Amino acid sequence: MLDTSRHIARAASRPIVRRVAAGALVAALAVVAGAAALASAADRSPAPQEIVIEIRYSHFIPAHISVPVGVPVRIRLRNEDPIDHEWIVGDAAMHAFHRTSTEQVHGDIPTEVAIPAMSERTTTITFQAPGDLAYICHLPGHEAYGMVGWVTIEPAD
């Protein structure tokens, strides 16, 4: 004798299995689509802008740069002089501090870079607010000699 109740129960459970499988497939597709959207958004993030500032005869060249707010800016500092320099960018309070500081090494601070003679250093900065900041070498006598420049941070479009 054929046990029809077992066949009916198995047949009745198939639509449930199919619905569960379909739901899992939809969830997996949603995860993949979300990951693709995030990757696409990351691809649209601004690429770092690169600026080269040369140091020659104890002067910054160029002495003025413009950068966009909120975009990473890679700054290559190329010291072509036979003496050490530094590049410190900041507001008036920061420069007031450095004029009287005896700090010889700046460590990993992106806005405070020591550049040994005849060498190059690179730093990356994302300026968070529009405005103007000075960049200055605070080694003894260098600012008075003219090692001063300006960065203008332009508002976002």
Description:
The protein is of the alpha+beta class. It folds into 2 domains: 1-45; 49-154, Cupredoxins -  blue copper proteins (Immunoglobulin-like, Sandwich). The protein has 3 helices and 9 strands. It has helices at 4-44, 92-100, 142-145, and strands at 49-56, 59-61, 64-68, 72-79, 85-90, 112-115, 119-126, 131-136, 148-154. The chain has a 5-stranded mixed sheet, covered by helices on one side. A 4-stranded mixed sheet has the order 2-1-4-7, with no helix packed on it. It is globular, with a radius of gyration of 30 Å. It starts with a helix and ends with a strand. Residues 24-42 have low confidence and may be disordered.
- Gyration radius from CA atoms, angstroms: 30 Å
The top-level CATH class of the largest domain is Mainly Beta
**Strands ordered across the widest β-sheet:** 3-9-8-5-6
Name given to the CATH homologous superfamily of the largest domain = Cupredoxins -  blue copper proteins
Form type: globular
Total strands:
9
Give the helices and strands as they follow along the chain: HEEEEEHEEEHE
State mean pLDDT (0 to 100 scale).
Answer: 81
Which percent range describes the beta-strand content? 35-45%
Report the uncertain regions.
Answer: 24-42
- CATH architecture name of the largest domain: Sandwich
- How many strands, which pairing sense, and closed or not: the largest β-sheet? 5 strands, mixed
CATH topology of the largest domain: Immunoglobulin-like
- Helical residues, percent: 25-40%
Number of self-contained structural domains: 2
In DSSP terms, counting alpha (H) and pi (I) runs of 4 or more, how many helices? 3
Report how far apart the termini are.
80 Å
Q: Report the structural category.
A: alpha+beta
